[in-house]
Amino acid sequence: MNATPRITPLLRIFLALLTAAWLAAPAARAQLQIQITSGVTNPVPIAVVPFAEAPADGTDVADVVQHDLVGSGRFTELARNKMPATPTNAADVKFADWKAAGSDYVVVGQVTPIAGGQLAVDFNLLNALTGQSITRQRFTGSASALRNAAHRVSDVIYQAITGIRGAFATRIAYVAVVGQGADQRFQLVIADADGYNQHLILESRFPLMSPAWSPDGQWISYVSFENHLSAVYVQRVLTGQRTCVSMRAGINGAPAWSPDSRRLALTLSGDSGHPQIYILDLSNQHLTRITDSPAINTEATWSPDGRYIYFTSDRAGEPQIYRIGATPGSPTQRITFTDEYNAGPHISADGKLLAMVTRDDSGSYRIAVQNLVTGEFKMLTPGRLDQSPSFAPNGATIMYAARPGRGQEGILATISVDGLTGLSLKATQGEVRDPAWGPFIQ
Amino acid sequence: MTESVRDRWLSIGMSVLLHGSLIVLLALGWWHFRQQSVPAPSVPINANVVDARTLKGLGTASTPAPTPKPAPPQAQPPPAIQPEGPPPPTPDELAMREQAAKAEAEHEEQAQRELLARQAAAQAREEARAKAQAAAAQQAEARKAEEAEAAAQAKSQRLAEARKKAAAAKLAAQKKLAQERKLAEEKKLAEQQAAAERAARVAELQQSLQEDERAAAAQAASGALASWQMAVTSRIQNAWIRPPTAQPGIECVLNVSLVPGGSVTGVSIGRCNGDDAVRQSIQTAVYNASPLPPPPNGIPFPRQLIITFKPTH
Amino acid sequence: MYRRTLVLMLLSACLGLTACAHHPPKPSAEQQQSTAGGAGANANGAEGGANANGGPFGNQNSVAGPQEGTLAKRTIYFDFDSAVIKGDGTEIVAAHAKYLSDHADARVRLEGNTDERGSPEYNIGLGMRRAQAVRQALLLQGASAAQITVVSYGAEHPVDPAHNEDAWSKNRRVDIVYLTPGMQPPQAPQPPQ
What we know:
The structure holds 3 protein chains of 3 kinds.
Chain A: H1 3-29, E1 32-36, E2 44-48, H2 61-71, E3 75-77, H3 95-100, E4 105-114, E5 118-127, E6 132-141, H4 146-162, E7 171-178, E8 185-192, E9 199-204, E10 208-213, E11 219-224, E12 231-236, E13 242-246, E14 252-257, E15 263-268, E16 276-281, E17 287-289, E18 297-302, E19 308-313, E20 320-325, E21 332-334, E22 341-347, E23 353-359, E24 365-371, E25 377-379, E26 387-391, E27 397-402, E28 411-416, E29 422-424, E30 431-437
Helix pairs in contact in A: 2-4
Chain B: H1 5-33, E1 47-49, H2 52-55, H3 91-184, H4 188-239, E2 252-258, E3 264-272, H5 276-289, E4 304-309
Antiparallel strand pairs in B: 2-3, 2-4
Helix pairs in contact in B: 3-4, 4-5
Chain C: H1 2-15, E1 42-43, E2 75-77, H2 88-102, E3 107-113, H3 120-140, E4 148-154, H4 165-171, E5 173-179
Parallel strand pairs in C: 3-4
Antiparallel strand pairs in C: 2-5, 3-5
Helix pairs in contact in C: 2-3
């Protein structure tokens, strides 16, 4: 009779606890689910803090990086006079201050001399909101290559935040025309993608045009009129050694390297024929004709898989862009249907976008882009005398030749592929034209 | 009175059951809180990338123009024959050309103006859209706040009733058990077994009562909750700067820890098929959206959010 | 390995050239393959006196040529986007055709040009269309094919670099340039048909 009173209260407590536990559980386990299906495409706010500089040639690495990132259109900068501090390594960064200043990301770094007279560029890309380092790298090189190191820093930052490989540490080739009359000279120039570090690789008293980079960036092909007649040359960039690959009667023009570097597309016409697209096999000099239409067919550009050639043809009256297989007898397909004049095609490295020169209804020549997947056509530049579009190897920007206004000489400019951000390149003497954007540097 | 063997086993059994269930509950709770974790700090990468050829640029020559080959004696160029231009323009043509020139100049200006206007229009549209979104969000919030209040009142009433019901049932069950325990004194083994069975049944009853109560509460709160979810979603969407690689097909889950004020204290990435740029962007978005808007009255601030980033276009 | 293959290919291209270096009867000044030390190269074109063969087309240097009457006019103008010889052009062509047919050793180079608007290589095509139109007209009126070389400079060789219709109308032209008489340039191989 004594055991029972002991057990009953115990059982009651047990049951009460059990009930209480089940009552309390839902509140602790409540987890809310949120689905995010869209975002915004504003530029990303980033602060590039001046690097601790070694006394050098005056290259401001942080300034080069900032100019690269902002010029791409995908970033906005924090002005130096608005920076809360000037740290040069991650440990000194007070993240709350940078977040308060409006920056999502902060770049800090140093330039320090190292053995052998070289310089080391160290940088750290930090997320000001999570307080974490995203990436930290070092680039070393000579003092004269400091700009190049800065561009490589930009490439890393650009890729870390946009997912797209940066194309800041690449080169361009273009034609410059200096002087007048008997003193006029035509020059083939190679420079950094921002127009700095120009190197003259050919000078002639006769016109030069249509520079084209080989896919590995070691060769440039171009058209030269040095015999009063046109010829296509191939020149090794580092040594200047050049070879003539075609000097036939009539037109020799519009060289374009195949993606596998084995073939060169050319435009040839003979004395009396229409200009047609040919493919020259560089290994055996075998020449194959691809197009066969009583019209002007020129300006070949290869698809990235090497199977197709996009080109300009006025077989329909005015020039439009067409596509043909890179083997003889392939069918031709018309690509552009917007506006009356589409020429100068250049295809992006992923094969999805085609840049071109378009003449709009007012007679203005402008750079436009057609999406080869969706068919969407978009005008990018205001014109009025734009020409020669060339894609950056990452497909995010297009360089072209512009004549900004009456009385002003031709310049080179870039436009982002969404049409929102444009830049002019560093001014140079004389007129510049015919830009060709080189490949990624391995 | 001495303890019988059966009494001892009964007491041991009860003791084990009691302690066991406590341990189980503790384990559940620990497993549950284990899901919150702070992201581990990343190891900085120290890469030495040296590419001497590239960094040196094209050869060592920094002065561009090489000396041109000395030109051998030039043949006299032919006397310049003045090219006779096209027939001089007639006054009509001149007038037309002037007009054309004027029209060109106008056109250039207009093109510039148009471009500026288009850019301004695009900007205005963006601002208008942002304003409209904000206004709509505000309106929605206000409306939902009203609804929430009304729903909350109804909910608290129903909760009180449900609680009374549960308490009454609990008491009834306890009384029932007490009676059965008294009966078991006489036939201890059989009664203990029956008691054990009934204890299990009581637990089941408790559980189903709890589920009913939870369902009722959820239904009442769903309106207010949904509107708060929308407010949070909208805030994060406006803060998410989407990198180009965040395309449809990407799906990333973030476990977000909150404190009652709505501030985000920690973020960890769960299942995610996006690249590093996507991962950075979603973390940045959630921190930029912090502190989150407060939920309507009656709903406690959840300590954890599960945010799934899944762009649809 | 990649680069080496490319170098080998291009070296074999040098050797196997059929369309470039040619062997005219007289020793020619080597100017096809100029290797530049360092970073630059120069292409000065065929220079020298009347006897030097500067390249596969012989001496492409111009001479004064006939100056009487209409023959002094050497330029034919064209409308925008057109290769139709108009107005004065017909007479000029006729005059030069007669001269060419009367003087079998006369040689001309027809240089086609366009205004600066539009895509550069397409303009090369337009300029060639104009030059070929003049060539055809000359042939029809008595000249022979061996007397005529055609080239197109497209928009690269304007006479007036201004950016207005006045300048553009002056640039849309074909120039007739007289070359050393009697020159027998080996015809450059035509592209295979």
